[in-house]
Amino acid sequence: MRPVSYARHQFPPEIIRRAVWLYLRFTLSYRDVEELLAERGIDVSYETVRRWVLKCGPAFAHNLRRLRPRPSDHWHLDEMAVSIQGRRMYLWRAVDSEGESLDVVVQSRRDKAAALVLMRKLLKKQGFAPSVLVTDKLPSYGAAQRELGLSARHEQGLRKNNRAENSHQVVRRRERKMQGFKSPGSAQRFLSLHSAVYNTFNLQRHLISRRTLRLVRAGAVNHWDRATAAS
């Protein structure tokens, strides 16, 4: 795993880890995290919290992904429009059949080239090809699949792709809380960090018993502790 260094920080690692966890785990702003820490007697500015997220977040997310089990080979792909500084952009997302977020790519276009960027990144990151691709009826997906020579069964339809459609909801909530993304680069950075934490703590509690929930939640906390431990 990627080493995490907390050297040359005024605050101990426990506080840094808690602040980053609060921001990425819940629909909070940097100022919200500042208030929550202040209520516990920790005097830290929201700007400091922002710097902690930018500095430590990528290492945390990388380590969390390393601890995740291999996703399924049924991939659901979808795209949604977002407004960034008044410019229409597209957020391309891939999830597996269990709702695990596989990757997120911010693109300026909604065409074959953008679909190729997503699929190539998925193949490189996951290290294997899917057996099933589920998408809406956008022709770009089929064209990208043919160019890459993928043999996966391609299923299309709005209802079939509900899993990918639903995965956008949590991003919409964060987008509203942040009053929109400030740039394509900042959107890409945040969504990459957020998806890793979301995968770890998305427990689907309505599908499991209370006893199982406690075990799964303890496992998620253990993964977070391992991923954010000091080097």
List the helices and strands and how they pair.
Blueprint: H1 13-25, H2 30-39, H3 46-67, E1 74-84, E2 87-96, E3 101-107, H4 112-126, E4 132-135, H5 139-148, E5 153-156, H6 162-177, H7 184-201, H8 210-227
Parallel strand pairs: 1-4, 4-5
Antiparallel strand pairs: 1-2, 2-3
Helix pairs in contact: 1-3, 2-3, 3-7, 3-8, 4-5
In words, what does this structure look like?
- This protein has helices spanning 13-25, 30-39, 46-67, 112-126, 139-148, 162-177, 184-201, 210-227, and strands at residues 74-84, 87-96, 101-107, 132-135, 153-156.
- By secondary structure, it is an alpha/beta fold.
- The protein has two domains: 13-67 and 203-227, no CATH class; 74-182, 2-Layer Sandwich (Nucleotidyltransferase, domain 5), CATH 3.30.420.10.
- A five-stranded mixed beta sheet has the order 3-2-1-4-5, with helices on both faces.
- The longest helix is centred in the N-terminal third of the chain and has 22 residues, at 46-67.
- The termini are close together.
- The model has no long low-confidence stretch (mean pLDDT 93).
- % residues in beta strands: 15-25%
Number of DSSP helical runs? 8
CATH topology of the largest domain: Nucleotidyltransferase, domain 5
**Largest sheet, strands/sense/barrel:** 5 strands, mixed
The CATH architecture of the largest domain is 2-Layer Sandwich
- H-E order: HHHEEEHEHEHHH
The parts where pLDDT drops under 50 for at least 5 residues are none
Total beta-strand segments: 5
Instruction: Provide the structure class.
Output: alpha/beta
Number of domains: 2
Query: How far apart are the first and last residues' alpha carbons, in Å?
Result: 10 Å
